[in-house]
Design brief:
Elements lengths: L1 H29 L1 E6 L1 H8 L6 E5 L4 H4 L8 E5 L3 H12 L3 E4 L6 H13 L3 E5 L13 H9 L2 E9 L2 E3 L8 E3 L4 E6 L10 H18 L10 H8 L10
Parallel strand pairs: 1-9, 2-5, 2-6, 3-4, 3-5
Antiparallel strand pairs: 6-9, 7-8
Length: 242
């Protein structure tokens, strides 16, 4: 019986994911989005610089970031879990190219597929502290991908005027209320060859701080130094889970 139920369950999850994606698309369309982009990124756009952008952010901030109109096709990596099936369908509805993989299942193959897509001219989006946290602690996946293709790291942050935060969730997921003001920040591009994961963390935290400041909100909370040190004492595989 197992071989019969799996395809049906996967199909059901894809259908539910597509419905969820449509709801998210409508939700995002109501938001009043203001984008604060670094001047150097604007110069790159005006000069038709072909280098790939590896968009880098923390978990929990990704929903508001979907409201930003991306400059070109963008790829993400989503886990092979059951939730990942639903998430992949939802992201596809919202215009993202999805590659499947995680640090525990198919991560190396997924990351290699993502690099191939970058070489073909897409950008990529990485929640750098995924897939299991700790929150705000960058893994090496975004740096690895950007180095392999000669691309640029683009730290991103967001803030919402009104909404909800899942404070008990490890990623502190934030969901803006419909018609709420949203700030999306794209910070100065970073050269991956000269950038460490700590540099990337600081740049993303700074982007979130700038977004919060634009809405006159309290400062973006930082991950404790104890948690960061504890995590870095363990070797982590590259991850690119959105």
């Amino acid at each position: 019986m197992t071989w019969c139920t799996r395809p049906r369950n996967a199909l059901t999850e894809r259908i539910l994911g597509s419905i969820l994606g449509a709801v998210a698309w409508l939700w995002l369309a109501t938001l009043r989005v203001r984008v604060l982009s670094d001047d150097r990124l604007d110069e790159l756009l005006e000069s038709d610089d072909a280098r790939a952008w590896v968009l880098s952010f923390f978990h929990g901030t990704q929903f508001p970031l979907l409201a930003w109109r991306r400059r070109r096709a963008t790829a993400v990596m989503v886990s092979h879990s059951r939730d990942g099936e639903l998430q992949a369908a939802a992201l596809h509805v919202n215009g993202l190219e999805v590659v499947r993989g995680s640090s525990s299942r198919g991560g190396a193959r997924g990351l290699a597929s993502l690099v191939r897509m970058l070489k073909r001219g897409t950008d990529a989006a990485f929640a750098v502290d995924g897939p299991r946290g700790p929150y705000g602690v960058a893994k090496s996946g975004a740096l690895f991908a950007a180095k392999r293709v000669g691309g640029l790291l683009v730290p991103m942050g967001s803030a919402i005027q009104r909404g909800w935060m899942l404070s008990r969730a490890w990623d502190k997921f934030t969901l803006p209320q419909p018609f709420s003001r949203v700030i999306v920040v794209l910070s100065a591009p970073l050269d991956p060859v000269a950038t460490t994961t700590e540099d990337l963390e600081r740049a993303i935290r700074s982007a979130n701080e700038r977004a919060a400041s634009a809405l006159r909100l309290p400062s973006f909370s930082e991950v404790s130094s104890t948690e960061r040190r504890s995590h870095r004492s363990r070797r982590a595989r590259p991850s690119a889970i959105l």
